[in-house]
Each structure stands twice: as structure tokens, then as C-alpha cells.
């Protein structure tokens, strides 16, 4: 089971959203990205948030939105605990209901936005019918109170690296190695690593691991076994899979597979 400080909610009838609540949490994330759009709030304590080119200490009542694929980390201050809530939303679903989405992290200090988020998550974690939960989610996203001030400028673009990004996003063990990908692009491994990190804020290896964790989450939600997921996604063994997963999700794969 997830630790007492963390609870997950999801419903296969609403596959475009997952929610997390944490109280008195000391869990830390390494810098990571995911394929979902994230909107979160700080309920208690303070958090050290960082993303490429920016950082901020987030206070209680702060709402933050993070685009898909953008690397970030959000952790309690050293020796302290904090409480937070986070929505993970399908980007296509978000665009459908919210229109054009920001390309940068945005921070919002708005009493109405914070209260609206809390009401929404109370609804999601309740026993209400799925259609009521979906309607509450649509209302919150489309109203747009979660939008705020940019924390940093939009990330740089590198269209010529898009093929590399697509290959690295392939979670299969048959995907080309990073040296092979560099050679295919006419670059040395060092050149690919430097250019990819400049463009995305992540090394190719870290980006690939994040995409494998994305895929692992999907497989675990579908009920796949931990050993099968580790094997299918090319992890050295189950302990390697567990370590990589926990660094990015702040809970073990087994705990994620059995939400409370």
C-alpha cells in the first residue's frame, strides 16, 4: 500500500485524469518529466520547486501548472514535511476543454483558484458518480483559474532533434541505443547529449527513463505484474525498476499498482 502520507485516486471510466494527495510528506523527487499535464497546490509547509531556468519556494495556497514533458522537481525543504495535491491530466483532453495551453510553468496565488482545486479534488476522492466528477473537472479546467504568471520563459525548440525525441520516447527494449541514435543523426554521443540537454533540460538517458516510467505507470494501472513490466521495458532487474520508478513517482511500483 502507499505510505500513509500519500493517496492516489483514479478510475478506469475517467482515463484522462489521475490525482494524488500527500500529507506530512518527506518524499523527494529527482528532476523528472512526464507525458501528462500537471496542476497542483501546496496545502501545508513549503516546497522547493525547480525547472530549467527557474526555481521558487512555494507557499501554502500556491497553485502551479506544469506542461507535459517539461522537467521539474518539487520537494519539501530539508528536514521538513509538506502537504500537497496534484492532478495529472491527458494533454489532449486538456486542450479540448481549456484551449491553447501555456508552454511554460505557471504559478498562481489566487484564493478562488486554490479553493476551486480543493473542491474538485474532494469530489474526485469522493464516492460520487463518474459523470459528476467529469463535469467538475471540465468546469475547473475550462474556467481557467489555474492559469497564472510564467515562472520562466518557454523552453527552447530544436526541431532537428525531434526524431531523437521520438525514438527516445519509445519504451520498447528494441529501441536504438543512444550511441546508435547519435550516429544516425551524424553526431557524437557527447554532441547529442549536450544538444538534447540544452533543448529539453534533460540528458537523452534521463528522458528515456522518464518515458519508460510513463509506460510503466500505464501498464501497472492495467494490472501488469512488476516483474513483467521490468522485463518488457528493459530494466536490468526488478530492483532497478523499483529504484528508477520511486525516484520519479515517490512511491514503489507495487504501491502505485494498488492505490488507496
TrEMBL record:
This is AraC family transcriptional regulator. The keyword Membrane does not apply. Residues 162-259 form the HTH araC/xylS-type domain. GO terms for molecular function: DNA-binding transcription factor activity; sequence-specific DNA binding. Keywords: Activator, DNA-binding, Transcription, Transcription regulation. It comes from Alloalcanivorax marinus. InterPro entries: AraC-bd, AraC_XylS_family_regulators, Homeodomain-like_sf, HTH-like, HTH_AraC, HTH_AraC-typ_CS, RmlC-like_jellyroll, Tscrpt_reg_AraC-type_HTH. SUPFAM superfamilies: Homeodomain-like, Regulatory protein AraC. The keyword DNA-binding applies. It comes from the Bacteria.
